[in-house]
Amino acid sequence: MNFAGTWSLVRLALRRDRILLPVWLIAFALILQSAVATFTKLYDTAQERAELAASVASNPTFEALYGPLYGDSTGAFLSWRYGTTIGVFAALMSLLIAVRHTRAEEETGRLELVRAGVVGRLAPLTSSLITVYLANLVLFALTAAITAGGGLDGAGSIAFAFQITVNGVVFGTLAGLTAQITESARFASGLAGLALGGCYLLRAVGDTGGPAWLSWLSPIGWALRLRPFEENAWWVLGLFAALTAVLLTGAYSLQRRRDFGAGLVAPRPGPATARPSLRTPLALAWRLQRGLLLGWVIGFVLLGAVFGGAANGVEDIFDSNPQLMEVLERLDQGSIIDIYMTMIMGITALIVSVYSIQATLRLRAEETGLLAEPVLATGVGRVKWAAGHLAFAVIGPAVLLLTAGAAMGLVYGAAVGDVGGQLTSSLRSSAVQLPAVWVLTGLAVALFGLAPRLAALAWAALVVFVLLGQLGPILQLDQWAMDLSPFTHVPAPSASTFDAAPLLWLLALAAALTTAGLTGLRRRDIASAG
Amino acid sequence: METAISMTDVHKHFGRTHALDGLDLSVRTGEVHGFLGPNGAGKSTTIRVLLGLLRADSGKATLLGGDPWRDATSLHRRLAYVSGDVTLWPALSGGEIIDLLGRLRGGLNVKRRQELIERFELDPRKKARTYSKGNRQKVGLIAALASDVELLLLDEPTSGLDPLMEAVFQECVNEERRAGRTVLLSSHILAEVESLCDRVSIIRKGRVVETGTLAELRHLTRTSITAELTAEPGDLAALPGVHDLRTEGAHVTFEVDTSRIDGALKALTAVGVRSLTSRPPTLEELFLRHYEDELKPGPAEDGASTS
């Protein structure tokens, strides 16, 4: 009877996610479809593939970001370039869905009403995990169909589909477990997300000169070791099965033990009076946002350190290859280390944009959660209220980018005995990305102020920018399309022709968007209940 | 200043829903004004317009002599608001939230805060996520009542409070009245309204349909008449203000608008009366009449258009 009502809840979850899930899955399918088309069309001779493999092997940036390349077949390229990336995003999708239907429902109190019906104790957890597994099953089928349909080896396509979806299963299940720990849904998805980021970094260290066993500590590392299209190492799936079983056992035993609405630890009492400093909207925003920022800072220290460590091998390869040196000089973007740092920071900036949108949309969450109302009913004006949270959306990305830059510069600088020089150069690479990130902040503010119901479209904009950056060059898109993304306009900081004008334009755009959003906020209705 | 709140012909649409449809409301300085109406009648929308959270489509609203939209921030320093469903930041303690909201308003009476926490028996150290509905309301009430403000906007503030706490709340409102503060109290609890409010406005479908003291409102409703006549009456239904007439031979029961009672009684005595009982409307009937979905046309509505 513990499972009574599970299928009704699955249907409810699918009904609630009827837009969210298809958007994720269609985005994945589109990326895969164009990737398959690109790799089969552009690299169809063995020689072209061998050249590509050589250029990949020569740049440890790639290994750090995507993992090792295990061959020079079309399938091997596909798996190397997209297996980890889409796998990580599928894991992100899965953990968000798992928390959305378990702890988030419990925290808002909606699940109480549901559980009072003929619904078993374990039905909500079970149904949300089934929903996650169904989503991954569909992704599995899509992936296998797209790759096999593109003319790639059938068994390899299956292995590739596993590579992409196994971590969805693992991290979805993990989120089912973290949802049991505290009463907060934010904590549940934050902890699962931190685990995902940690596993990604473990693999990055293991794959770029660190101890190789580190990659074996990470399920993201395991997925790479499936070696789709090359070896199809099916036995690796056993690791996933075992890990999922352990996580499931943990999640269910915690769920059985705890009370409805409770976590593992009873919340401690807080202070009876507020500190004297808790008297402004900014101080309130600090209380609400500091945990999120701290989690991100920790993640970015690690990320910077890992990629700083990986930078060590870059120069060796180029020193031994005069032809590549020549290519570099023609590129005029500084030394190979400069290019490496610029590339890493380009990716870092995209990740930081996730934070900036998250921090901005907290405003919308506060508004729809009716938590803006009590503040706005006091002597606090709307702009002042918004500014408290926007301080995080504006200063936070700067803190994160500079943290990552500093960690990278320090680690690499210490390794090559030039801390001062490398720190300057890595901080410069991270600082040039800031205006582009702020454009995303501005866009989110503009949507929040002018079209609050569509505020979540800021995420869609970020996805489009990421796709433009990732797929644009491969698909050889026109420049105007590439120009849509603010990240296209970030100049290489070490080029001799460095031009700061685009940065000023991006800053002006971010400021204009923010101003428009705040103006809209001053004019519109504040959301009320229902 | 004579009037603390004045709204004239205020309209507010949400898409196709006409939430406020020419609302007129007047609250005098220093009075406790009851604000009644069925769910969805527009009470909360009215209060949110007064708070400047919503912008009225048309009409004029004045609050403490200012414009609730334009002067929102400065007006908010002079008022306190409690919603019917107080929402709190789950990770903050009740005490922290009381202090924060008070300070954001520009100050809090620390002595009164302590006194109210004791009277409402709130544990201020608990995290907001662990409070029950009633305790969340207490946090909102204490934060509002501990501020030195001129006006309290209370939107069903006692929902979820137990009867003991309801009594504490009524004491507090009476103290506010004695201190000369103005209170707009939206409520469904008739006993609360009857014991606290100087005047009452009833809102229905976005319009105030009646306003006045309870005695005045009673006058606007119907009285039940049961009479035993000496002969079969003529066509009593044709009399102005008579409703729900039932005649069994010489026995009649009907309801009559209180303002038209004189004419009805004259008609009965013209036939000849053997016995007669009349029952004035209870407060419940007074409100239920306005809460019912289909309002029959009658003098109550005439009263509304002239009030």
From TrEMBL, chain A:
The chain crosses the membrane at residues 80-101, 122-146, 158-179, 191-214, 234-254, 292-314, 334-355, 390-412, 432-450, 457-475, 503-521. Keywords: Membrane, Transmembrane, Transmembrane helix. The keyword Transmembrane applies. Coiled coil: none annotated. This is Exporter of polyketide antibiotics. It comes from Actinorhabdospora filicis.
